[in-house]
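Regression test case RT-17, inverse folding.

Input:
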């Protein structure tokens, strides 16, 4: 899917492109700190096969958020999803996740997996509301901090608009 989509609050969702990457890496550093992605990581993701990345832009083309999907046969993975701190809680994360779910289905996946920090309550709340179930725990996966990772899965994939 490559068309534009409008979120309820006005920003548009478009494919993430190379010219968004400096802003994406800066936002990633603010949101994920020691586990954030560099611009090079984003470049590698955009260049990799079987990936689809989306960007949320405001009216001045400023990057407000992004999300990425990878797929392989029947399984797809949420690579990342992020919304700038000032705009969180406005439904943008949900819109991005719905887009990933739709894209995963379009690529033939029947399940969508993700990893989330056990202490990330907003994200876990969003995923649970979308129908994801926790299927495994990886103890101490996130370092430093020794925070568990929850593996969550949505299956089957169908729209939760
Ligand atoms: C997780 C994230 C992408 C959600 O994006 P968002 O735009 O804030 O999410 P939405 O506005 O669509 O909210 C979805 C739900 O989460 C809830 N939520 C959002 N922020 C919250 C917060 N700080 N605390 C509790 N719940 C929160 C909303 O209330 C909403 O639930 P509701 O429908 O029951 O009201 C965003 O918080 C984020 O970028 N966090 C930092 C990066 C991150 O942790 N990414 C996920 C890695 S796995």
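Golden output:
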């Amino acid at each position: 899917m490559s068309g534009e989509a409008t979120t309820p609050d006005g920003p548009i969702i478009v494919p993430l492109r190379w010219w968004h990457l400096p802003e994406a890496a800066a936002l990633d550093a603010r949101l994920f700190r020691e586990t954030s992605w560099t611009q090079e990581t984003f470049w590698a993701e955009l260049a990799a096969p079987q990936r689809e990345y989306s960007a949320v832009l405001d009216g001045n083309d400023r990057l407000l958020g992004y999300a990425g999907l990878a797929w392989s046969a029947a399984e797809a993975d949420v690579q990342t999803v992020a919304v700038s701190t000032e705009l969180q809680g406005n439904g943008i994360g949900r819109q991005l996740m719905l887009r990933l779910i739709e894209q995963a289905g379009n690529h033939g996946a029947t399940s969508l997996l993700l990893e989330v920090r056990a202490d990330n309550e907003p994200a876990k709340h969003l995923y649970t509301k979308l129908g994801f179930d926790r299927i495994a725990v990886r103890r101490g996966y996130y370092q430093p901090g020794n925070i568990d990772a929850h593996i969550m899965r949505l299956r089957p994939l169908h729209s939760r608009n």
